[in-house]
Write a structure and sequence with these properties.
Blueprint lengths: L10 H6 L11 E6 L7 H13 L3 E4 L4 H4 L9 H12 L3 E5 L7 H6 L26 H18 L5 E5 L14 H15 L2 H8 L26 H29 L4 E2 L1 E2 L12 H5 L6 E3 L9 H15 L5 E5 L18 H11 L2 E6 L25 H15 L7 E3 L7 E4 L2 H7 L11 H15 L3 E4 L10 E4 L7 H12 L3 E5 L21 H4 L1 E6 L7 E3 L5 E3 L3 E5 L3 E5 L9 E8 L2 E6 L2 E2 L1 H15 L12 E8 L2 E8 L5 E3 L3 E3 L5 E2 L3 E3 L4 E5 L12
Parallel strand pairs: 1-2, 1-9, 2-3, 3-4, 4-5, 6-7, 7-8, 8-9, 11-12, 11-13, 13-14, 14-21
Antiparallel strand pairs: 10-23, 15-18, 16-17, 17-22, 19-20, 20-21, 23-24, 24-29, 25-28, 26-27, 26-29
Helix pairs in contact: 6-9, 7-9, 11-15, 15-18
The structure holds alpha-D-galactopyranose.
Amino acid sequence: MHFNTNQNDNAMDYITARLGSEGSPMLAFGGDYNPEQWPEETWDEDVRLMREAGVNLVSVGIFSWSLLEPSEGVYEFGWLDRVLDLLHANGIRVDLANATASPPPWFSHKYPESLPVTADGVRHSYGSRQAFAASSRDYRRAAAALTEQIALRYKDHPAVVMWHVHNEYGCHNQPDFSDGAAAGFRSWLENRYGTIEALNHAWGTAFWSQRYYAWAEILPPRTSGTWVNPTQQLDFARYSSDELLECYKAEARIIRSHSGHPVTTNFMGFSMGLHQPVDYWRWAEQMDVVSNDHYLVAEDPRNFQELAATADLTRGWAQGKPWLLMEHSTSAVNWQPRNIAKAPGEMLRNSLQHVARGADGALFFQWRASRAGAEKFHSGMLPHAGTETKVWREVVQLGQALRSLAEVAGSVVTGASGSIDVAIIHDTDARWASELDSHPSVDASNIAETRRWHDAFYRAGIPTDFRQSTDDLSGYRLVVVPMQYLVTDAGAANLDAYVRSGGHLVVTYFSGIADENDHIRLGSYPGAFSDLLGVRMEEFFPLREAETVPLSAFGAGSCWSELGRATTAEVLAQVEVGPVAGSPAVTRNHAGKGRAYYVATSLSADGLAGFLPIVCADAAVAPLVPDLPANVEVVRRSREGTDWTFCINHGMDDVRLPLSGVELISGGDVDGGLSLAAGGVAVLRSRGPLSPRQPIH
Ligand code: GLA
């Protein structure tokens, strides 16, 4: 089978079907395996312990370039041959990397111009990783040559089931402001605008004497005296993502010309801001399987909800289909200010959260915790202290849990109505544009507001998808638009049509303000949505740090308020005191067959908990379990008439949930009342026969 059509329906099925012994699908379990960091004598112990834990998939070779190609055009594959043969002999499948993530020192030494340059003009040195500029022809040539060698050599290796291109594109070298990037940016702009007049218009260069007369005058938004032209910054983010994507596409093309296994590269969740620009919506179209890496922010008290939001976003990129958790950690990482270890049971809860939200497996960075190098304090599946450890026992326990959940593979995430009823809009351009400088308030954050709304639904037990403003939204009863500062004409028209044909739309403050060139939409705020929302706002009144304004309902607002009035909307809450007293804070407007709500401030968790029941009642959106206890997560996956309900208790109290079914992790029947201990997990299969799966070839 070939996966030359992107995001092929069966690509994740293709992988899971190859992980079980008799072709029966298994959820993926394993991690990055870096045997080159260890003497060969260790490898036998590695595979023995992998078998003990039930590991069935490992990613190999991600950072091996300097060993595989010791000098230009000279390749040494002996050790990798032996590793792959050993894994195969032990029934462990391989996600094989093309090893282009980190060029070797000899390469950077020989081609210093391949190194990326910061906005201040400082050229990066080598000595860490990912030290290359996406625009470098030398890098691309060398990466293509290595990819060709690896694909040719291992395309028929029986251990290999998928391909791992590069690693976390853009993590350390994005954006690059080198001369190569300047040239690439110029041709990207010529392609986008055609004429310099069109560029001048888009960039608003009449302002501050910025008019350009020739393409050659244009530079990346390098450090300047003060704010660089915002549209230039936005276009540079778009260009930088595209330039990097060209690297992926070139390498994937080579692999696909030799092999039919699915191809992926691992994404980094929400880390795709203006200063690390990778537009995963566009990238996902190029993946056979969407895979993501997720690391808990240890000190965030609601980090499990951030995990849930990231998993939902990843499922959005995968268009609702199963995806793969390529990396997470068994315990502490090494790169946060304070690397808090995971409490007993936390890793199992984290892993099952990802699976509940559509991952067909849970992999880790990395198999064996390193002895040397920058990540030696990062946890692994096999810790420094060996197997007599909490981490190892929990790894073995997780392997067992994932085996008992094998039947979940290939199912999709659903909600109370049988599908997911709520979508949150998350356009990359809107996020990037909202992160530009010289805005009304540093506290107004697209990511923070998005997370707040996701959290509100999370607390209510209502599953949410992530979508783009231009997607077909007709399947959703409710769509939320958190701080969509920039919206394209097409996105605005799509959201408008969605409401008028019967949808329910919530729009928050600082949305619809700018068009795709970052030009203000004139007339009234919130620009593109004023008519739809039935409000006319005239001036922003951002709040002081930590200031709040009391509202007539839903508590108090923070971060933001606005002066204005409702035109056709019904006011559900108004600002009570201060310079905008009497201005609307929360409104509802009938438009066509639907309703559109405006929230002109940032509501607290309590405020959102008061508002959500109103809008959910209007839109007929229900939770999976009513009155869900605090910090308990209930998520459902379904396939052909069978449901699997994942119940995860992140709280300190034992709870009882009104659910029935066959519990798959500890085994046993549950009849109407599931007892879930503090920190506990359960997965209930609905009663009735399991429908047989179609064989996968
Ligand atoms: C990323 C990388 C890994 C490793 C981990 C550490 O996800 O892909 O190679 O550095 O971070 O958390």
